[in-house]
Amino acid sequence: MPQTPLTVADIGEFGLIDRLRRRFEQGGEGVLRGIGDDTAALQVRPGYLLLATTDALVEGVHFQRATIPARLLGRRALAVNVSDIAAMGGIPRWALVALGLPAETPLSFIDDLVEGLAEQADLHRIRIVGGNLTRSPERLVLDLTLLGEVEMDRAIYRTGARPGDRILVTGTIGDSAAGLAILLGQVPRTVPGAEELIARHQLPSPRVEAGRAIALSGLATAMIDVSDGLAGDLGHLVVDNGLGGVVDLAHMPLSPALQAAAAASGRDPLPWALYGGEDYELLLTAPTHRVDELTRAVEATGVSLTAIGEVTAEPGLWLRHPDGQRVPLTPAAWQHFRSTDQTVVRAPTPPGSAREERQGEEGWP
Predict the structure, then answer these.
(1) Are 87 and 282 in contact (CB under 8 A)?
(2) Which of 80-94, 249-263, 329-343 has the lowest mean pLDDT?
(3) Is the peptide bond prior to 365 cis by the omega test (within 30 degrees of 0)?
(4) 225 in helix, strand or coil?
(5) Which among 41, 298, 338 has a CA at the least distance from the CA of 171?
(6) Angle, to 10 degrees, between the axis of helix 291-299 and the axis of helix 208-217?
């Protein structure tokens, strides 16, 4: 008879902690004390800002086990946090992992999840220094906190865009949303480029090297990562700061795979690019006369940088067609805690005011 797989209930909380400690117990730069004490003890260098971000992935809300293997889920969970550090121009350093687990979760699933976390951590030289375990009645919850650092005079915030700045984005956009549509059966898996798009969704590539190049160049005025969709995140950069922006449709960086999949399935790729989200590219602004220099710095890291529009003093977002016609671009973003989770229209917010609810996957603050 086949042997029944071990579950987390079979070894209990402390057995699972020991299992995780064996995988992650290691020193590293800045780690004075890691897993095994009440807190990790980390040494922060003089002249640097400590960056902190956290992100929770809830089964049935952020992922389905049927659409992503456990190892890729582990890698993805850490990658999306790394992207937040990259958007500040920072270096990811240390991570804390909290797991909420149904008791019947197979240990093989946890082992694969942990292996994915370790692979992604090794890729960016991140040390996993602790976390927490708890029982979750029905769904798996994976909550990561990532700490990083950046030179005090090189941090890039969301609030520095100025009228006349160019709007730029790394890589290509819309691929992750198209990949998810394929996984959910909304688009046939036989369309050209399907596997490439699925890979972009399941395992994003946070732009750490590009973010560092941008920060060290000192040329960007504001930056954010594309998690809620280009339209929503552009709203954070300009609308939230009392400004506006125009995006040129002809300059949108759409991958050949995205365009092929859209054509084969009879779909318009634009909604994927504008509202799909989870591309984890970098969206930034810079003075027009510095764009060429900035582009060279980013492309030296192996990542493309495309100018897609400009910041305006007049509030509001616009999409400009190749013939010059402008149509309103709604700064919509995914938002939790409505009657049902949904994409909502975000009205312009005067500088200095607070929103009733935080949008999408935003941090605190």
Answers:
(1) yes
(2) 329-343
(3) yes
(4) strand
(5) 298
(6) 140
Is residue 15 over pLDDT 80?
no
Across 21-35, 125-139, 158-172, least confident range? 21-35
Distance CA 245, CA 229 (A): 15
Contacts of 348 (CB under 8 A, 6+ apart): 239, 240, 242, 315, 316
For position 4, what pLDDT does the model report? 78
d(CA 131, CA 361): 21
Torsion from C-alpha of 143, 149, 150, 151, nearest 10 degrees = 160
Stretch(es) of the chain classified as CATH 3.90.650.10 = 166-345
Q: Identify the three-state secondary structure at position 221.
A: coil
Q: How far apart are CA 31 and CA 41, in angstroms?
A: 6
Q: What is the DSSP string of 187-210?
A: S-TTSTTHHHHHHHHHS----HHH
pLDDT in tens, 224-236: 999 989 999 999 9
Span 47-58, mean pLDDT? Answer: 91
CATH 3.40.50.2300 matches 166-345: no
Q: First-to-last CA distance in the chain?
A: 54
Residues of the chain with CATH 3.30.1330.10: 8-151
Bridge pairing between strands 316-320 and 244-248: parallel
Tokens for 301, please give them: 């890291």
Number of Cβ within 10 Å of residue 251's Cβ equals: 15
At the topology level, CATH places domain 8-151 in 60s Ribosomal Protein L30; Chain: A; (3.30.1330)
